Amino acid sequence: MPRHFEEIAKFYYLKGDLTRQLAKFFLIVLVTLSFLWPKSLAHAGSYWEQVGGNGLGDPNNTFIPTLETWNNAIYAGIGNYVNGARIYRSTDGSTWTKVNNDGFGHVNLSTIFDFQPFGNSLYASTIDDRIPAAQTAEIWHSIDGITWTQSGADGLGNPNNTGFYQMAEFNGRLYVGSGNATNGGQLYWTADGINWNNVAIAGMDATNTTLWSLYSFGGYLWLGTSNQTDAAEIWRFDGAIWTKYLDYHGFDPELEDYKTVNNFFSTSTNLYWEAINQVTGAHIVERITDGLLLATVPGMGDPNNIWFSQNVVVQGESFYFGTRNEVTAGELWYSPDGLSATRIINEAFNNPDNYAIYALTFKDYLYVGLSTTNGAKGAEIWRRRTSADFVITTKSLKNAEQGSAYSTLLAASSGIQPLTWSIASGNLPKGLNLNSATGEISGTPQESGEFRFIVEVRDSGKKSQKARHIYTLKIIAGASDSILSQIKELPKTGQD
């Protein structure tokens, strides 16, 4: 057993009675906080507001699994079991426009599950989560967010792929996992957005029917499975070899009720994952760097919180996340440090029909998407009307070419001017510099490869705010470099 696996297993095994005592303690604390927290917070017009109307204008839009900010617009992925999956776009956060054909032409293609920027396009994964599923899943992409084109074949060549789940970019490739009850979950990658390749993971059990979550962190591609027979697993890929990192079935005592790892996310220093337990309501967010747990108490003190959100809004070392709660409605939580958390929205704006907060994003405001069981009303999107959130809003960097001039401007939300920019960790590639006053990264890169670094920005308030963001900058080898490499490899002729 790998050392990290053994240490985490011992942690679970030894906590025993102590965990039960802690659970009682934290439950008392959380209940107390729920009474002390201002009840009007969710309803104060100056603080939260609903945008787009119920169902974004159609009550059949009942499910919002994902929100994404890309190219100065917000995209809402919608589940609609009457008309088919839909994508809505907003440039102002208030007015929303549908930008795809219902279900991309297939009424049974019911849900947009995830968005992922890659290259110069935004990609959308789809699922048919009806029971039984009747439609092969598809991947679609758009270069402008308005016109959408299918990427790859239906099911990426496998008609048993009824869902494509989370996507992630790693080493210049876009990866996606599928749900496949016949062959087991499948993993695919593409480098050009057209041709997809199936990945065979040695040792992967076919009972992992869904490869649910993917995330790039720390030089690895992380993968979380859904396994209703045994228990969830976590795998990671270093670019050459896949290794099983954790198996919930392998703990002593066993943790077989943890069936799905539904999400990974990271702050500037820590990687977390979320594990679902729909039997006991236990739901844990774990911190890989030190094994500490955010959700020591099952379900954050409420066993009915059986699921955490797919989207998490991260600001430095703090983050927002939602829950699925089919008894008292979904909740919104805030963690300032990754070890403690406070519930800031209770009972989904006093509407028990809003059973889940899966989708969150940030664009000047904090946006949350609420899924509903009320088919006559439709799902809702709310945003917090405040300028207090200070974050870097530039989420990714365009590729550069070695030997060619490069310039990109970073931006931050709110904050008191002037802002001061710096590199908090790592290094820019040789030839590039960050302007501390303007936030511009510019210069002529002298080397190729992928470079990971953390940018920090501070404002000029009396109590200075700061925000950080992790970037990966890809520099493509220049033509001159390629020619020089070929010249060096030419055979010697014996002539000068």
Report on the structure:
It is a single chain. 10% of the residues lie in helices and 40% in strands. The chain has 496 residues and is mainly beta. The chain has 2 domains: 3-384, Methylamine Dehydrogenase, Chain H (7 Propeller), CATH 2.130.10; 400-482, Immunoglobulin-like. The strands form 9 sheets. Strands 21, 22, 23, 24 and 25 form a 5-stranded antiparallel β-sheet that branches. Strands 1-28-27-26 form a 4-stranded antiparallel β-sheet, with no helix packed on it. A 4-stranded antiparallel β-sheet has the order 2-3-4-5, with no helix packed on it. The chain is globular and about 55 Å long. The N and C termini lie far apart (59 Å).
Keywords:
mainly beta; Immunoglobulin-like; five-stranded antiparallel beta sheet; four-stranded antiparallel beta sheet; 3 helices; disordered N terminus; disordered C terminus
CATH class of the largest domain: Mainly Beta
In angstroms, what is the radius of gyration?
A: 23 Å
Mean pLDDT: 83
Within CATH, the superfamily of the largest domain carries the name: YVTN repeat-like/Quinoprotein amine dehydrogenase
Distance between the termini: 59 Å
The outline comes out as globular
Please bin the fraction of helical residues: under 10%
Helical stretch tally: 3
CATH topology of the largest domain: Methylamine Dehydrogenase, Chain H
Tally the beta strands.
35
Strand content: 35-45%
Structural class: mainly beta
Please describe the biggest sheet, giving its number of strands, its sense, and whether it closes into a barrel.
5 strands, antiparallel
Low-confidence stretches: 1-46, 480-496
Q: Assign the CATH architecture of the largest domain.
A: 7 Propeller
Query: How many domain regions?
Result: 2
